[in-house]
Design a protein that fits this description.
Layout (H helix, E strand, L loop, with lengths): L5 H10 L9 H10 L3 H11 L3 H6 L1 H25 L2
């Protein structure tokens, strides 16, 4: 088990700011502050929340993101089953 990189910490800190309050502001800020596209940001965040180091660094945030991801997967799964022929 290693340590988080500076960019991994920056991603978690950035995500923890409560962006849900500001519709549309997050995507622009991702590029300005982190120097990456929003697609790349979400790819990295998705991998990052599986790391034990991320859980140790921001436990409440990581658990919340894991729950949200699991709920989205469950909804997609349920939707696929209900629309199958």
């Amino acid at each position: 088990m290693g340590e988080l990189t500076d960019i991994e910490k920056a991603i978690l800190d950035f995500e923890n700011r409560g962006w849900w309050k500001y519709a549309g502001a997050k995507e622009g800020a991702i590029f300005v502050e982190l120097g990456m596209s929003s697609t790349r940001y979400y790819q990295r965040l998705n991998v990052l929340i599986e790391k034990p180091e991320a859980l140790a660094y921001q436990p409440m945030l990581v658990r919340r993101l894991q729950r949200q991801r699991a709920a989205r997967r469950q909804r997609r799964s349920t939707h696929r089953l209900s629309t199958s022929p």
